[in-house]
Amino acid sequence: MTPPAPSLCADGVEEPGRDAWLAVGVTTLVFFLVVIDVSAVNVVFPSIRDDFAVSEATLGWVISGYNITVAALLMVAGRYADSIGRKKLFLPGVGIFMLGSLLSGLAPNATLLIAARVVQGIGGAIISPTAIAVVLPAFPAHKRSSVIGITGATGALGAVAGPAIGAFVTEAWSWRGVFLINVPLCLLVLALAPKLLTESKNPNATGRVDLLGVPIGTAGVALVMFAIVRSESNGLGDPITAALCIAGIALIAALVRRSRHHPEPLIEIDLFRHRSFTSTNLGLAFYSMAFTSGFLVNSLLLQELWGQSLRTTGAALMLSPLIAASISPIAGRWADRIGHRWILAAGSSFCAVGYFSYRLLLGNDPAVWTRFVPLSVLTGIGVGSTIATWASAGLADIEPARFGTSNAMIRTTQQVFYAFGISVAIAIVARGVGNTDVANYHLAYTFVGGCYAIAAVTVAITFPPGSSRSRST
After folding, report:
1. How far, in Å, CA of 167 to CA of 47, rounded?
2. With left for phi above 0 and alpha for psi between -120 and 50, is residue 467 left, alpha or beta?
3. Is 398 left (phi over 0), alpha (psi -120 to 50) or beta?
4. Which neighbouring-strand residues pair with 14?
5. pTM exceeds 0.90 for this model
6. What is the dihedral angle through the alpha carbons of 125, 127, 132, 133, rounded to the nearest 10 degrees?
7. 62-107 pLDDT tens trace
């Protein structure tokens, strides 16, 4: 008896089976580890400082070294993933991330820990654009937002679980366990992934990449990120910081000019011909400035201004990501049905209203459970509607052959503006008499809420209407 023909969707892709969803689970696990590692390091920072007896400025490179490495290599990783194969790059990326985790957990001093975090950042840079790109080709266009929504929910859960796991592991064992716990989980992924993942790449790619564009682009992004990190301690007006930023921007401009004419460019400029991709990057720049800086300002308000313990701070910050984790998959399904435009605009508006409410209703006197936590419901709804929807919006009209490159460019926008937002927030909170002045927090909340509002307006005006399916037909 002849087996039934596979069910095809309108865009010619088979309806995904069990193995496709299991592959999503495997790649999502790795993404979960990356998010947990980033959020947990902030909690174990004091324990690492005490063990190695070094200054906070030196140890700050445990975080900054990782972030700069990831941002600098994202475009390179995405381009090579599309050229030589997503699976071929994803598996070594997991292996490098595992090696960096192992070295971080065994590091005998701060210098080697920073070096190990750079290795871990190389793995993270490979995983970030390929974890989604390696599975999306198995899904039709009208289900890709749902897949990315699952990833977004996992990221939100990682943001919640990271500090809690970091505190528990450190208290029960050592801060080293935060890194070493990745090793067996990465081994599990490396055992399962080869059987579940299928290879995909750009069929028109030659396997070659612009060898001059790679160092230009990598150095350009790295210099901009380094300037942003330096500005946190030296100020935005520091001449060396300004010189680094100008040099980085000049290199990125040179890369853009070169990419317009090179047959295998590092940046595929024609991606910006898609209105949805351009709109996503514009709106995401403002959204990213608000996202990480908003969480930082909240943490500083609770601990520095209101004098709350780490345990209370963690509990107070937990509600918003939990709400986000529950809403993100639902937002992904609705984005598949009605499109991304108004979901992103409404979600960003919820975030803006939440932070403007902090500005208006929070003062010097602690009001953790009576005002701060109830107001965080607004930001939880907003983040849940947007955190994964931005990624799916950027990929909505992109052909599967270029998922790696386009996703890497979106992630690069996120990383750079995450760092820039944090730099601005730190400068605002620390001005004048420092982080005990409620007026500084009010100004910081105005900055965060304003960025979210601009993101909402930008996407509402520039993003194309309808769903990706309706636009394609």
Report:
1. 10
2. beta
3. beta
4. 8
5. no
6. 80
7. 877 888 888 888 888 888 887 788 888 889 999 999 999 999 999 9
